[in-house]
Specification:
The protein has 201 residues and is α+β, with helices and mostly antiparallel strands. Helices cover 27% and strands 36% of the residues. Strands 1, 2, 3, 4, 5, 6, 7, 8 and 9 form a 9-stranded antiparallel sheet that branches. Helix 4 crosses helix 5. The protein is elongated, with a radius of gyration of 19 Å.
């Protein structure tokens, strides 16, 4: 069992996250340790969730990249509130984060775009994410045309593509135990730092 006594009022939630993520990245049975569920709301209050990859994190927040014209992009444009969820099944642990999202700078988005594999650039360049498309063949034809057009050129970062920085307001660290006597530790952002409380399972 984990020594949960190390999680308490003096803990830094970002440090706990870093510790858990380091362990997850070293675990061969976890294919995508940085995979996280991102949940957003539309204008009528319907909730939409999807899994994306967390590409950077710091005490400022958590960064993922997407098409700004996608469903999540349209929803975040109207409602900045977002929830993130990491689940590390081999360790029976999860991290819940709620906060607000804002676009990263254009410079940050372009720098990350240039670090991506060319095939990933092509797929994002041609995709009208979340919009209907007639067939797989149509999608592959768009990819092939772009591949040919930019055969000897740098693929430009689309203006409608870039990063989101999620600034956390709350963290919840969950550790599963037998008999469903799980540990839950909640941190909430306050003017002077983070408040802390243990929650019932």
């Amino acid at each position: 069992m984990d020594n949960t006594s190390e999680i308490g009022p003096a803990s830094n939630p970002f440090s706990i996250f870093e510790e858990w993520m380091t362990k997850a990245k070293a675990a061969p049975q976890i294919r995508e340790p940085t995979a996280m569920t991102v949940s957003t709301f539309n204008s009528t209050g319907d909730l939409h969730s999807r899994v994306v990859l967390c590409k950077q994190w710091s005490e400022e927040g958590f960064v993922f990249y997407s098409n700004y014209q996608s469903r999540k992009g349209a929803e975040l444009e109207k409602n900045k509130h977002v929830a993130l969820l990491f689940y590390f099944d081999p360790f029976f642990k999860q991290i819940k984060i709620s906060g607000t999202a804002e676009k990263t700078s254009r410079e940050t988005s372009v720098a990350y775009w240039r670090s991506r594999h060319r095939d990933s650039q092509l797929s994002q360049f041609i995709s009208q994410q979340s919009q209907p498309i007639g067939s797989r063949a149509e999608l592959e034809a768009l990819w092939a045309a772009a591949d040919k057009k930019y055969a000897d050129q740098e693929i430009p970062c689309p203006e409608h593509w870039g990063g989101y920085l999620v600034r956390p307001k709350t963290f919840e660290f969950w550790i599963g135990y037998v008999h469903r006597l799980h540990d839950r530790f909640e941190f909430e952002k306050a003017p002077t730092g983070w408040t802390f409380r243990r929650l019932c399972p």
